[in-house]
UniProtKB/TrEMBL annotation, chain A:
It comes from the Bacteria. This is PadR family transcriptional regulator. It holds the Pfam family PadR. Gene3D superfamilies: Winged helix-like DNA-binding domain superfamily/Winged helix DNA-binding domain. PANTHER family: PADR-FAMILY TRANSCRIPTIONAL REGULATOR, TRANSCRIPTIONAL REGULATOR RV3488. Transmembrane segments: none annotated.
Automatic annotation (TrEMBL), chain B:
It comes from Oceanobacillus piezotolerans. It comes from the Bacteria. The chain crosses the membrane at residues 89-111, 117-137. InterPro entries: Perm_prefix_1. This is 2TM domain-containing protein. Keywords: Membrane, Transmembrane, Transmembrane helix.
Amino acid sequence: MIRSDIIRGHLDSIILRLIMEKDRYGYEISKEISERTDQRFQIKEATLYAVFQRLEKKELIQSYYGSESKGGKRKYYRITTLGKAYFKETVEEWKEIKDIVDIFMEGFD
Amino acid sequence: MKKLAQHVNELFKEVPESEKKEMVMQEVLQNLEEKVWDLMEQGKEEEDAINKAIVDFGDIGDLKEELGVSEDSSATQARRNKLMNRKLNLGYSIWGSLLIIGLLVFINFYYSPGVIWFVYPTFAVLWWPLSMYYSWLRVKKG
């Protein structure tokens, strides 16, 4: 399991990426993260909702209520144009960070 | 599922009432319920599934912050309450000691006007508001 404090700074981008693929709701996102990482990283739901609040405040995502499901209406999130632009920027930034960190981390066993 | 609703209410009790809070609580509860159903479909007992969902949920410190409650503001509120309490104690001790001293003065001048003795018990009584004053001052200065 990955230490969550290391990945914390990238949670916004991870969630934006998943919402960019298609509109999703909270539990679906946390399940998707666990599945895609083969359970190596599991996001705490409390953290997930904090990220939703933050992204909505920054107008990077928008929420809407979907159709009725088991426990009531699900709240879905969709990415905004601003969100897409922000994500693109973070991808570029990540490549840069990766290159820099690789300089010091690669080639050491 | 009642346990889940109780847990969510407990988690959000410090967050000031607002429409946003209600919406987030509803969303959290709905997603937790879905997780419980999922876990039950995977073969877990309802009780175990609920406990797992609660444990997995994590600490809502960040979420509270996003909703406008910070650790700082609750500490400030606690300090303010304490200060208010000490102020009330100080006021009570001042009025109480004034009444006692007044009574002593009355008894002194009514029954034994030739001997001024009320000063001695007055010193003893004054310790009460004095200690309350320093107790209030200590909290005020933090």
